[in-house]
Write a structure and sequence with these properties.
By secondary structure, the chain is an alpha+beta fold. It has a single domain (2-150), classed as Gcn5-related N-acetyltransferase (GNAT) (Aminopeptidase). The chain is 28% helix and 31% strand. The chain is built from four helices and seven strands; from the N terminus they run βαααβββαβββ. A seven-stranded mixed beta sheet has the order 1-2-3-4-5-7-6, sandwiched between helices. The longest helix has 15 residues, at 95-109.
Length: 151
């Protein structure tokens, strides 16, 4: 298994991995794939925006983003881990945790003391040191949970 940072790859390679992201059975994955294909990831989430992928050869195991801005309009909180997804055939092995830990490592190396997640998943992010700090209105006009992890 290898961790790849999608935005550091040549554009043609980004497009190939973007097609694999598009195969996820999740609407948000399709949205992220469209942003990759249209070269609009940083326009949507700010700079630097990262898409971390765990790969097994040419297969995409899981992915997530590490971005300055996510769906919660709060400039006091950043960066954000988002779009955490594991393909069905790889679930149950905590592969997403490998990427979450990598995102936390990057965040710490960039001098941040905390990283955030917006999600209504209960029990997932707590496994990796996050705790709930409340709920907030998203830019999509629904309320969602906010998790924080001190690094």
């Amino acid at each position: 298994m290898t961790i790849i940072e999608l935005m550091q790859l040549e554009r043609s390679v980004q497009l190939e991995w973007g097609k694999k992201i598009a195969k996820s059975d999740w609407d948000a994955g399709g949205y992220l794939a469209r942003l990759v294909m249209e070269d609009e990831v940083e326009k949507a989430f700010g700079s630097p925006s990262r898409i971390l992928m765990l790969t097994d050869g040419d297969s995409l195991v899981c992915y997530c983003t590490l971005v300055p801005f996510d769906e919660i309009p709060d400039d006091t909180k950043k960066p954000w881990i988002g779009f955490v997804y594991t393909f069905p055939e790889y679930r149950g092995h905590r592969y997403a945790g490998v990427l979450i830990e990598e995102a936390k490592r990057i965040t710490k190396n960039e001098g941040y003391g905390k990283v955030f997640v917006s999600s209504d998943e209960i029990g997932l992010y707590e496994k990796y040191g996050f705790h709930s700090i409340g709920r907030a209105q998203s830019i999509h006009e629904y309320e969602t949970g906010i998790f924080e992890c001190s690094i």
